[in-house]
Amino acid sequence: MKIGFIGLGNMGAPMAANLVAAGHSVTGFDVAAPMPEDVTAAASAAEAAAGRELVITMLPNGEILRAVAAEIIPAMTQGTGFVDCSTVDVESARAVAADAEAAGLLPVDAPVSGGIGGAAAGTLTFMAGGSAEAFAKARPLFEIMGQKAVHCGPSGNGQAAKICNNMILGVTMIGTCEAFALADKLGLSRQAMFDVVSTSSGYSWTMNAYCPAPGIGPTSPADNGYKPGFAADLMLKDLRLSQQAAEAADADTPMGMAATELYEEFVEREDGAGKDFSAMLPRFESRRRS
Ligand code: NAD
After folding, report:
1. Is 177's pLDDT higher than 90?
2. pTM value?
3. 162 in catalytic set
4. Burial of 79 (0-12, 13-18, 19+ CB in 10 A)
5. Are strands 54-57 and 81-84 parallel, antiparallel or unpaired?
6. How far apart are CA 238 and CA 199, in angstroms?
């Protein structure tokens, strides 16, 4: 397939490389990042999109997505797939999809879970929103770049699934970290805490697969000085999107709001920027009840 790929940063570059490795012809554009090997460089986003059968975007936020979409939609031919894999606000995803549909394109919002490691290994999970026809067109590429693609319903539902999942993740990580910090102060060893919780009703992905305590449980960013992994900054981005969506939908999300405030504090007023989101554990460990 002739594919256009716009936004070749930490995630986009390895995803595009996997498409090339699978035999697809990829033309790329990025305002700053270098082109991965065997991706043909275009001079603009419109040039990368024109004449392709499917165009993928992997961009920082909804504002940039809207700007890029305004540029590429007129350059694309009817029936072309337009797959946005960025994490953006639900509103931007739906607005871009409506413009794309009006132009006869097949839009899918398909944010991913799995991080840079998953992008490189081709094991991402895609959460997709769009028509059945648009999803079917994108699916073979999801199978190359990932291990699972879930069709979540109409446009915007992929983003909805992503922010709901990550709201749970943020809340759960904070709960796991504060419980470890409490256990420390109660004189319970971290190993005992892990052995009990990972096989009891407090278990979760954050405890069992991504344990925030160094040297305990599976290997995780905690074992690598809390180098990300999944950066606290990105968790804050996703939590803010969850609160933006909750505001728009008039949904009561008190734990999501508390998690957003805590990560905001950690990233913007403490030393959390650039650390893995599990570095909430040393944060709690160093604090007292106030
Ligand atoms: P990144 O900043 O490394 O990559 C974004 C790329 O977009 C950059 O190379 C940038 O130069 C490019 N760009 C910006 N404006 C552009 C424009 N107008 N035209 C063309 N290119 C432009 O970010 P990333 O880590 O690759 O993340 C991309 C998206 O994936 C984000 O929405 C992020 O929230 C999401 N995401 C990231 C991770 C992760 O672990 N990094 C995990 C899941 C989802």
Report:
1. yes
2. 0.95
3. yes
4. exposed
5. parallel
6. 29
